[in-house]
Amino acid sequence: MDSRFEERLTSVGFTTLTPIQEAVAEPLASGQSIDALAPTGTGKTLAFTWPLLPELVPEDGEQLLILAPSQELAMQTTRVIRDWANVLSLKVLSLTGGANIKHQLDRLKKHPEILIGTPGRVSELIANGKLKLKRLRTLILDEADELLRDDTANQIDLIWDAIDDDDVQVALFGATEVDQSTASGLFNRDFLRIDQRQVKIPTAIKHEFWPTARDQRQKRLRQLATQKHFQAIVFFNTTKQLKITASFLAHEHVAMATLVRGDSSTTRSKSLMNFRQGKAKFLLTTDVAARGLDIPDLPAIINFDLPRDGETYTHRAGRTGRMGKAGTVISFGNDHDYRDLKKMVAVDIQTISGNHVLPSKKTAIVAEKIAPGKQATPSSSSTSDKPRTNNKATQRKKSEVTNVISRQERFDKEKRAKRKHRKNKGKPKHN
């Protein structure tokens, strides 16, 4: 590692690299083309940042191109890399759809050494003759499995046609395997496979299943919103259901944000900023929009809709418990959903019933400091990973009582606020 990077890491108290960061350092620095696999939340962005940036030459034009499947992931990667590029006096430019293309073209004229973008915008600039990549030394595909499928793969093909240089290093990064024959055929080379998925790093992620009827899932979210210091990304399979739930939460005055493909770049950026700053309790999104997102110390993710396969579950779960911190994966559903989930993923899943205290950002940080790598102790309300078989009518009655009490408390609070307003109406305000 470059000595300037080592000095900065030492100053912030960083002492240990993750397995993927150690494994790819030498091959990347030596110019090898690699196919790197590691679990989500293990620091893959920094894994290719630290070895590659010191190899770039300042003021020598576009040398490193990083492609990401979404605007959000591209902007997130830009923020991370820019911090380290500044140490080496390197310029970074983000090229994403939805952003001001004139501003991007103006900055391209300064020939930044590092380009980070989405395939759609990069291929558009190449097709229009606005972006030349003849000086390129390295191409990175972040979340390569997502990039090398469907229409996006065609855009990658167009980008590579503009490069088409055997000397250009190509590195694939992700948590899910890419068909090596597809990658080898596209880029006309063999890749060194570096698979760190089975190398465990300390984690404290709990997987929970909350039996919930479909027509009660929105009310579940409303109840969870009352817990202090709790935030969660809520995953949906369809944009339609996401928008229906967003309308319900807005009507219930629950602070939330949505991240949907098709919204403007400004809208999506504002949603993420509000969630990162804690102004929104929930971030409602789909799998495509949230791929690769990094929200530090996120307490939980919620599967409003169960994912369609185990791979998707893994990517969703990777948004919480990142870099060994505590986190919780909550899935809503009925008995049939529970059986499907058990077949889908090979993790211990606790079935939760009754009132349950969820982790917050504060407890996630404390858990990491007190006992890194240890599983958080389940609450007394949790059960084994088998669904409860006791009287369902009794459970339903308890749930209904809980809902009524919660609703009544809310009404009482509103009445008190109205009485206070009427009492103070017309009185002068004091500073």
Give the topology:
Elements lengths: L2 H9 L7 H11 L4 E4 L6 H9 L11 E4 L3 H17 L4 E4 L5 H8 L5 E4 L1 H9 L10 E5 L1 H4 L2 H14 L5 E6 L5 H8 L4 E4 L8 E8 L5 H8 L7 E5 L2 H13 L4 E4 L5 H12 L5 E5 L13 E4 L6 H8 L8 E8 L1 H10 L4 E3 L9 H10 L21 H33 L7
Parallel strand pairs: 1-6, 1-7, 2-4, 2-5, 3-4, 5-6, 8-13, 8-14, 9-11, 9-12, 10-11, 12-13
Helix pairs in contact: 2-3, 3-4, 6-8
Quick synopsis:
By secondary structure, the protein is α/β, with parallel strands linked by helices.
How much of the residues is beta strand, in percent? 15-25%
Q: Helix segment count?
A: 16
Span from first to last CA?
57 Å
- What is the top-level CATH class of the largest domain? Alpha Beta
CATH topology of the largest domain: Rossmann fold
Number of strands: 14
Shape from CA axes? globular
Low-confidence stretches: 363-390, 397-405
Which terms summarize this structure?
single chain, 431 residues, alpha/beta, Rossmann fold, seven-stranded parallel sheet, 16 helices, 14 strands, globular, nucleotide-binding, ATP binding, hydrolase, DEAD/DEAH_box_helicase_dom
